[in-house]
Specification:
Number of strands: 15
Order of helices and strands: HHEHEHEHEHEEEEEHHHEEEHEEHEH
Number of helices: 12
Shape: globular
Helix content: 25-40%
CATH superfamily of the largest domain: Type I PLP-dependent aspartate aminotransferase-like (Major domain)
Largest sheet: 8 strands, mixed
Strand order of the largest sheet: 1-9-8-5-4-2-3-14
Bound molecules: pyridoxal-5'-phosphate
Radius of gyration: 21 Å
Strand content: 5-15%
Number of domains: 2
Structural class: alpha/beta
CATH topology of the largest domain: Aspartate Aminotransferase, domain 2
Distance between the termini: 31 Å
């Protein structure tokens, strides 16, 4: 087939199970179209049952959950908050919403997540941050034993940004349950989606109750509209939560397929001299949300060249998150390098890395098409260096 006519392979697109419509229909039949309702409560309970989290509050987005989570941890004007540099901007933006200052921490090679070594160095210069945001990047857990030991030694709470890692585990325990606050996202490209949405989890009931209060405009218990605090309109709707309930039932299936995709690439590229798959740390089991790879150090090809080539063949890949300390909007922010004598790990991964198509609807023929194209690309590129 002419490649121009070949269907476009997507990075990661919504994959409905067919079970969602029954929940949506029920919402319509019972006229629970207004915010909140049985699907919201059901979804919160089902997320707790799946992850082992104590309490949950379904919200309009993962970003909203991070925002209210930081508020609950007391982050306010002038505070310092540690945050990984290698992440999506939504991990850091809510720090600014609160008038606080992010201090960015480098990654370690083993998992691409927050480097405990760099975190220790950050504490030497900033001994009293208000909170630490820890991200489980691309569906793989950070090293919580080491990171929590440092945080606990300084008495600083953790907000676990598990937006990308629902279903991934660390030493057998679900990610999202290691921080004082945990956050999942159900944005359109996530492992399961509600079209848009997020959830905040915590083992402390008071945290979830307070967040729910802020998320529903901070309405006091009074016979009229009484407000002592500034509130937000951040709750998930009952219709949207219905999508989540249907999606949650196939989460394990989606994880199995994501792992299959990662393993397919790993096997296919094991003899390719130019590319290697992202490392999988021995301590956990990722949900393999996105299969990422890096071009090896001695290969003089930028990810953009490969991504442009794949795009020309109707295959969608994506750049690795550009580190926050290199973003114009965070210019001048403090950054702690994993190894100050070397370029930062985050920057190195960004300069050499890319996300490969990880759509769970891909067939083996699609995977084969991607692998063949990448092999051809490097075959042709090698003639140039
Ligand atoms: C690491 C990370 N944090 C936070 C978010 C924000 O989630 P949402 O898009 O639901 O606001 C995302 C995804 O979008 C993410 O990848």
């Amino acid at each position: 087939m002419n490649e121009k006519n070949e269907k476009r392979i997507l990075l990661a697109s919504p994959h409905m199970s067919g079970l969602e419509m029954a929940y949506i229909k029920e919402a319509f039949d019972t006229n629970w179209i207004a915010p909140l309702g049985p699907n919201v409560t059901g979804f919160e309970q089902e997320i707790c049952a799946y992850t082992g989290a104590g309490y949950a509050d379904a919200l309009s987005s993962g970003t909203a959950a991070i925002h209210l989570g930081l508020m609950y941890l007391g982050v306010g004007k002038g505070d310092i908050v540690f945050c990984p540099s290698l992440t999506f901007s939504a991990s850091a933006n809510p720090i600014i919403y609160q008038g606080a200052t992010p201090v960015f921490i480098d990654s370690e090679r083993e998992s691409w997540n927050m480097s405990p070594q760099a975190l220790e160095k950050a504490f030497e210069q900033y001994p009293h941050p208000k909170a630490i945001v820890i991200v489980n990047l691309y569906g793989q857990s950070a090293d919580y034993d080491r990171l929590k030991a440092i945080a606990d030694a300084h008495g600083v709470p953790i907000l676990e940004d598990a937006a990308e890692s629902l279903g991934a585990t660390y030493k057998g325990k679900q990610t999202g349950t290691f921080g004082d606050i945990g956050v999942y996202s159900f944005n359109g490209n996530k492992i399961i989606t509600t079209s848009g949405g997020g959830i905040l989890v915590a083992s402390d009931k008071r945290a979830v109750e307070k967040v729910e209060f802020w998320a529903t405009q901070a309405k006091e218990h009074a016979p009229y509209y009484q407000h002592k605090e500034i509130g937000y309109n951040y709750r998930m709707s009952n219709v949207v939560a219905g999508i989540g309930r249907g999606q949650l039932q196939v989460l394990d299936k989606r994880i199995a397929r994501k792992k299959y995709i990662f393993d397919y690439y790993k096997k296919a590229f094991q003899d390719l001299d130019e590319l290697e798959m992202m490392p999988i740390a021995a301590y956990g089991e990722p949900n393999y949300w996105l299969s990422c790879a890096t071009i090896k150090t001695d290969v003089r090809v930028r990810p953009k060249e490969l991504l442009d080539y794949l795009d020309s063949k109707n295959i969608e890949g994506r750049a690795i998150w550009k580190p926050m300390h290199l973003q114009p909007v965070f210019k001048g922010s403090a950054f702690f390098n994993h190894n100050p004598d070397e370029p930062s790990v985050a920057e190195d991964i960004f300069m050499r890395g890319l996300c490969l198509p990880s759509d769970t609807k891909m067939t083996d023929a699609d995977l084969d098409r991607i692998v063949t194209r990448i092999s051809w690309f490097f075959g042709a590129a090698s003639a140039r260096y």
